[in-house]
Amino acid sequence: MLSARVAPLRAIAVLSVSAVEGEIVSKASILLADDNPEVLSEVAEILEPDYEIVASVLNGRWVLENWSRLRPDVIVLDISMGEPNGIDVALALRDSGCEAKIIFLTIHSDHDFVQEAMDVGGSAYVVKSQLRGDLAEALRAVLSDKHFVSPCLQYQE
Q1: Residue 20: inside a domain
Q2: Is the pLDDT of residue 113 over 90?
């Protein structure tokens, strides 16, 4: 008989075994926030083989109310997801002491958005049209304490 008690998301350890070295390594935890359920589904599909998705939510308010309980390693935020938007969420997270790496996932390819995202504590900026090619690379970069911007933005005038 299954127990009716459900463990909190953070209490579940997700482990993988390195085939090369035979050691057990925990997966980085990711919180996803985007107001488009289809985007959330696609992002989860890309990331779930290699990362632990601790939550996938439709608004920034939920992120602000729950990040401290989940303590994700990385938060993936849509910039334009209503009130509060991703930029405001990132500012509030930093003001609250959140140390998670922030990856902005957005339709905006304007360099002013990139600059603002990085100014508020973003570690990476991924354009949604480049999601499949850039998101995994952005995650590897931020987890190595590096920054990432979708390459399609780096050479625009």
Answers
A1: no
A2: yes
